[in-house]
Specification:
Oligomer: homodimer
CATH architecture of the largest domain in chain A: Orthogonal Bundle
Distance between the termini of chain A: 53 Å
Order of helices and strands of chain A: HHHHHHHHHH
Number of strands of chain A: 0
CATH class of the largest domain in chain A: Mainly Alpha
Strand content of chain A: under 5%
Largest interface: A-B, 46 and 46 residues
DNA sequence: GTCTATAACTTGATAGAC
DNA sequence: GTCTATCAAGTTATAGAC
């Protein structure tokens, strides 16, 4: 990918995060990369192409991690911990892209929207299977697996608003705190 | 409020939830309430007025609940439980409005945006104080209070996508599962 | 309160010169 | 690959008749 094209994608991700996809205009984007609007179209096919790349790159990434975890040791508690750690790691490494992936995917048009939903559903199904396994072995509390899953997945969504501002806390500390919160909860017992 | 005005606000909330505020047009809204676009303006001042009402009604509600909790028994664990229960209750009772409040507030224009941010920050500050109190008394684990707070607050944000589809599970069961997950975590110990 | 018609503006995208 | 100029469609909102 050419340097200009790369810059366009990076600035677009930032813009989509700040304003949301529909409110982000190609004029905004052009001004940020210091090009005219029409010049953008020498590098990309259109606005939605950018959203598609962000969404599917991330979806593929998460599915790849899931496949690795499934191939690894058959220990549900460790598998869940690995998945959460990966979510945190990915979110911190490329918080802009992950945020857009999380919040803006619904603005994909068909048939991309359906394709994306399928991948998402697949990921959730496989995650829930791991949680169910852990419950069968008595490692996990008998919560509804879906509730447990979504509580974990969404609890990472505040990072992009909050973490950049709070430099005092290290990535390691952040990871261990979130992991402790989700695995052990707030209350002592 | 007149019945027509009420219907406009209700349909608008649904529309904002489905498409997001910027992508929801007054034409969409007019068509849903079976009026012409111009007739909408006999009932409301404009598009953003609807968003403002949703955001500030909810913000005031949450702050009112917080005030009651602060006046109640000085037991941090019980206070946190009450707050979470209230979040779940409110979300289930008016899931559309709460979702818009959560996801679309950033599209408020000034000075409303700053006013809203102030109320939000106030709520967070007071919630964090309760968590810190619980930690000082040894009721809570020594997590970073901000991390604990946002993990709790955002973990409720998936309800609107998921709960309407999954009728098998009762509100009571949902509440106890989420509460258990946040207070005790996934893992047995 | 309702409508039709329209103003004033922004949107994504393209034509065509250089 | 860059630009200026422009298009066609969509946006919120209003004027004014009934």
């Amino acid at each position: 990918m050419s340097p200009t094209k790369k810059r366009i994608f990076e600035e677009a991700a930032r813009l989509f995060q700040e304003k949301g996809y529909p409110a982000a205009s190609m004029r905004d984007l052009a001004s940020r990369v210091d090009l005219s609007v029409s010049s953008l179209y020498s590098h990309i096919g259109g606005k939605e192409e950018i959203l598609q790349k962000i969404c599917f790159d991330n979806a593929r990434h998460y599915l790849r991690v899931m496949a690795e975890v499934e191939k690894g040791p058959d220990d549900p508690a460790e598998q869940v911990r690995t998945l959460i750690r990966q979510h945190i790691k990915t979110a911190l490494e490329d918080i802009t892209s992950v945020t857009v992936f999380n919040d803006e995917w619904r603005h994909l048009s068909e048939p991309y929207l359906s394709e994306f939903a399928k991948m998402r559903k697949d990921y959730e199904r496989r995650f829930i299977r791991i949680i169910s396994n852990g419950q069968k072995r008595g490692q996990f509390t008998d919560l509804d697996p879906t509730i447990a899953l979504f509580t974990m997945l969404t609890s990472l969504r505040w990072l992009h608003q909050w973490y950049p501002a709070k430099k005092g806390i290290s990535k390691k500390a952040l990871e261990s705190n979130i992991l402790a919160m989700l695995m052990h909860g707030l209350e002592k017992r």
